[in-house]
Design goal:
Layout lengths: L1 H13 L6 E6 L2 E6 L11 E2 L2 E3 L8 E8 L15 E7 L7 H14 L4 E7 L11 H4 L3 E2 L5 E2 L2 H9 L8 E3 H14 L9 H17 L12 E6 L9 H14 L4 E8 L12 H12 L6 E6 L5 H11 L6 E5 L6 H8 L2 H8 L11 H12 L3 E8 L9 H13 L3 E8 L5 H6 L1 H13 L2 E4 L8 H13 L4 E4 L1 H13 L6 E3 L8 E6 L13 E9 L5 H5 L5 E8 L1 E3 L4 H6 L3 E5 L6 E5 L6 E4 L14 H10 L3 H6 L6
Helix pairs in contact: 2-4, 2-10, 5-6, 6-7, 13-20, 16-17
Length: 642
């Protein structure tokens, strides 16, 4: 009790809590009551925070619930229901779609009336995904709190309509860093720090702490936490996580833990038979590590045969009714419907001892999936980028285009253009690629230049921006794409031929894009301007403001370390380029427009990260509307705030 009192004192000082009163405290956490006047400290009445404290008597990761008096009724009604965990693992090969499967499981459970949260475990040693190449790992998804995370968290947010935190992405780097920091502080009191129990305990504590953080805008913890373990069962780097999850399954009890194993059922071209042996070996490996799957999610090109399911059931010790088939479908919105049609929710609810008679309400998902399948008209979009060799490098951009196109009853037809193929050097070295790239650009209805880093392909992007500006082709520049449009305008309109970004030419005499003062030149990870930031509209009659329904401001996610040079703003605006959105200081440019152009918009933020099915990003919607000649009619509806 004395230790708990010390922690209350620590919290009182750290969070300026007036007269906190202990409601509950033990080895797993604290629950305090604070006066209702402290609502500014208590978001929606409940504030969950993950914090490490200098003590060894409580768990290393302490869970808090700071509950206002107006919301203490729930605390007096008994112990909260235990958290239910659904673990999704993968076998045989990587890239089977564990993320989509985990997201779809969450969708089905949410449609049954449960509140769902998600955690992604990445076994790599990186602290986060921020410094990883898009070619190697796909895009870096950015969260509201500035977390640079795996792209699967983007799937979770889009499918489940959540707002996750950086702690919802667990990496080996984060775990080892937290354990080593505790060891340096002496928290282990001279004990030998080992993978078991210290690393595994840190993993379990992290999972249990993050699982109770509300991420759906409601108060209190979710009902079910869906955990995706990245990689493939048997990978050496995932062994500590497998062991920690084995211990977690034992500690929470079999009624609170459900394991879904995603595996591949290949068909050999010569034989033409669905082969179950790879899945058998994968399940055997998993069971040898102490985990037995309750359900199998089998990926295949075609639906599984009955004989294949029987064979899997016999050799993998999984009931035939729990063997799910996720075969190839026209679009991923069909995956939750596949699970629903195979009664996956009933199997999961039975394993978790949840008695819910509500059938999954998936009418909206059914409508979206069928609407997309029935679309016949398309719009051609030229995506001019650096990483076009891997579509996952721009996954959120692709999804945002999809959401916007469906809102316009169109299918997106994305023409991937490597920016370097547009450059003059390409005309000499690879003339065929150069000709094809320009032909593709000229045939597109609109041009999009997404974010990126480094100077490769920059000259091609500048040529694409110039083409769109001079030929009245709708243009959207995101992050680097906005900076590209500034460089092109300065060169072509202001006649500053040497205008450039200091990222590409540190000695340029005309730096129109500069390194941000608060950035670090020595460390790359988590040193950019990250997360949700507010942009204030400067001109209420601009296109962007109208697309955001005449809002005075917009909160969007950022990821950049260079910005438009404030010293050149006056010259650029005098020449016709208008900066219609700025940050709250008024010195950092966020949105630019070209007033005499049908749609020429550049934004420093990344609007794609907050696009959702049925709620497309305003700027992506504007791009597609402009490309199809519908923008003026759409904006007319919001001319006077209507």
């Amino acid at each position: 009790m004395a230790t708990i009192r010390r922690h209350i004192g620590y919290l009182k000082t750290t969070y300026s809590l007036p007269r906190p009163r202990l409601l509950y405290g033990n080895r797993t956490g604290l629950r305090l009551a604070v006066p209702s006047s402290s609502h500014q400290l208590v978001a929606s009445g409940v504030f969950c925070v993950r914090q490490t404290f200098p003590s060894q008597s409580l768990t290393q990761t302490l869970r808090l619930r700071l509950q206002a008096h107006s919301h203490t009724k729930a605390d007096t009604q008994g112990k909260r229901a235990e958290m239910k965990y659904v673990l999704v693992t993968g076998g045989v090969v990587s890239g089977l779609g564990k993320g989509v499967t985990a997201s779809s499981v969450g969708v089905v459970l949410k449609a049954c009336g449960l509140r769902v949260t998600s955690i992604k475990i990445d076994p790599y040693l990186n602290t986060d995904a921020g410094t990883m190449s898009p070619f190697e790992h796909g895009e870096v998804f950015v969260l509201d709190d500035g977390g640079e995370v795996d792209l699967d968290l983007g799937n979770y947010e889009r499918f489940l309509d959540l707002t996750l935190t950086r702690d919802n992405n667990i990496t080996t780097g984060k775990i080892y860093q937290s354990v080593l920091e505790k060891e340096r502080r002496g928290d282990y009191l001279g004990k030998t720090v080992q993978v078991v129990p210290h690393i595994t305990d840190a993993i379990k504590n992290w999972i249990e702490a993050v699982a109770v953080i509300p991420v759906d805008g409601k108060e209190g913890p979710a009902d079910v936490c869906v955990i995706e373990l990245g990689g493939t069962v048997g990978d050496i780097e995932s062994m500590p996580f497998i062991e920690a999850l084995r211990q977690l399954s034992f500690s929470v009890g079999q009624d609170n833990f459900c394991l879904i194993h995603v595996s591949l059922i290949p068909v050999l071209g010569v034989v033409g038979e669905q082969k179950t042996k790879p899945t058998q070996h994968s399940v055997r490996e998993l069971r040898a590590l102490g985990l037995t799957p309750h359900l199998l999610a089998c990926r295949s090109a075609q639906p599984l045969l009955g004989s294949t399911k029987e064979k899997l059931s016999q050799f993998c010790h999984v009931p035939a009714g729990n063997i799910l088939n996720i075969h190839d479908v026209p679009n991923i919105w069909h995956v939750p419907l596949l699970l629903r049609n195979q009664n996956a929710h009933l199997s999961i609810l039975k394993q978790l001892n949840l008695d819910l008679a509500i059938p999954p309400a998936l009418e909206d998902w059914t409508r979206m999936a069928e609407t997309f399948d029935n679309l016949t008209k398309s719009v051609r979009i030229a995506l001019v980028g650096k990483y076009v060799g891997l579509s996952d490098s721009y996954l959120s951009v692709v999804k945002a285009l999809l959401h916007a196109c469906i809102a316009c009853s169109l299918k997106p037809s994305i023409d991937w253009i490597a920016a370097s193929d547009l450059e003059e050097d390409s005309a000499k070295l690879t003339p065929e690629a150069h000709t094809a790239a320009w032909e593709t650009l000229r045939n597109a209805a609109c041009v999009l230049v997404p974010g990126g880093f480094g100077d490769r392909g920059v000259r091609g992007m500048i040529l694409a921006a110039k083409y769109a500006r001079e030929n009245n082709v709708p243009y959207l520049g995101i992050c680097l794409g906005m900076q590209i449009s500034v460089i092109e305008f300065a060169r072509s309109v202001l006649n500053l031929e040497s205008a450039n970004s200091t990222e590409f030419d540190g000695q340029t005499p005309n730096p129109v894009v500069i390194f941000m003062p608060e950035g670090s030149r020595t460390h790359m990870g988590s040193t950019m301007r990250l997360g949700s930031r507010r942009t204030l509209f400067q001109m209420p009659d601009c296109i962007t403001s109208k697309l955001y329904h005449n809002s005075e401001y917009v909160d969007e996610r950022h990821r950049h370390r260079y910005e438009v040079n404030p010293e050149v703003i006056g010259n650029l605006e005098e020449a016709g380029l208008k900066f219609v959105g700025k940050d709250d200081s008024g010195k950092r440019m966020e949105i630019l427009e070209l007033p005499d152009h049908p749609f020429y918009v550049g934004v420093q933020f990344h609007p794609e990260f907050k696009s959702r099915p049925g709620r497309p990003s305003a700027l992506f919607l504007g791009l597609i509307l402009a490309a199809t000649g519908q923008l003026e009619a759409y904006l007319a509806r919001y001319q006077n705030g209507s």
